[in-house]
Amino acid sequence: MDQAGAEAPQQLRPFCCEHSLLSRPDGSACFTQGDTTVLAAVYGPAEVKVSKEIFDKATLDVLLKPKVGLPSVAEKSKEQMIRNTCEATILTALHPRSSITIVLQVIHDSGSLLSCCLNAACMALMDAGLPMRSVFCGVTCVIDSNGEILLDPTTKIEKLRGNVGATQTHNLWLGRRCCQLNQAGSSVPPKRRLLFSRSPSTVLRSNC
Q1: How confident is the prediction for the chain on average, in pLDDT?
Q2: What is the model's pTM?
Q3: Looking at domain 4-205, which CATH architecture does it have?
Q4: β-pairing, 168-174 with 137-143?
Q5: Residue 12 pLDDT grade (very low, low, confident, very high; cuts 50, 70, 90)
Q6: What sign does the CA torsion over 82, 87, 90, 96 have?
Q7: What is the tens place of the pLDDT at every residue in 37-46?
Q8: Model confidence over 65-104: pLDDT tens digits?
Q9: 8 Å CB contact between 59 and 53
Q10: Can you give the chain as a three-state secondary structure string?
Q11: Assign residue 184 a region: left if phi > 0, alpha if psi is -120 to 50, beta otherwise?
Q12: How large is the angle between the packed helices 113-128 and 73-89, nearest 10 degrees?
């Protein structure tokens, strides 16, 4: 599928989600955006190993499995980002001394993989019925040397724009009200924040 944002940088590729595709997990979802597809499964709350037990909240584990081969450093980095996001929204204090595991299987990667994993994880958590402070979603964007924002880039565009030294790739996560651009966990001044409307094809600047 061609990147729709190549001509209209503020458009997202078509996306869809299916729930309860797997019978063994407590919750599952398949999220597709463009040609990028991720299958997510949630297990728990369940019994936890004594070595991982936390007395006042649930232990959260995230496993990201690539399409082929074993997980690399890139997958481990994404696992940490997804874990941090999910841990901030799941009410883990309601299930102390238990385990919650999120398994993400990459079916196909055509770009914006991390945001697709975040969206799949959120849908699977909702399907599992786990208590959450709010729902969340992710959007990947590329900012070029001119400050122009390209939403939802494909793998081809990520590599093409990645060859430009001043280009930056950011992943955004959205809570109830607004989202904040961040790279490697660093905060960004409010003027760089983005507020997304309900329409998936538009993005609005905001100082929320």
Answers
A1: 75
A2: 0.73
A3: 2-Layer Sandwich (3.30)
A4: antiparallel
A5: confident
A6: positive
A7: 999 999 989 8
A8: 988 888 888 889 899 999 999 999 999 999 999 999 999 9
A9: yes
A10: CCCHHHCCCCCCCCEEEEECCCCCCCEEEEEEECCEEEEEEEEEEECCCHHHCCCCCCEEEEEEECCCCCCCHHHHHHHHHHHHHHHHHECHHHCCCCEEEEEEEEEECCCCHHHHHHHHHHHHHHHHCCCECCCCEEEEEEECCCCCEEECCCHHHHHHHHCCCCCEEEEEEECCCCECCEECCECCCHHHCEECCCCCCCCEECCC
A11: left
A12: 40
| Cα first-last separation, the chain | 34
> 175, 136 in Cβ contact below 8 A?
yes
**Token pair in block for residue 121:** 């994880």
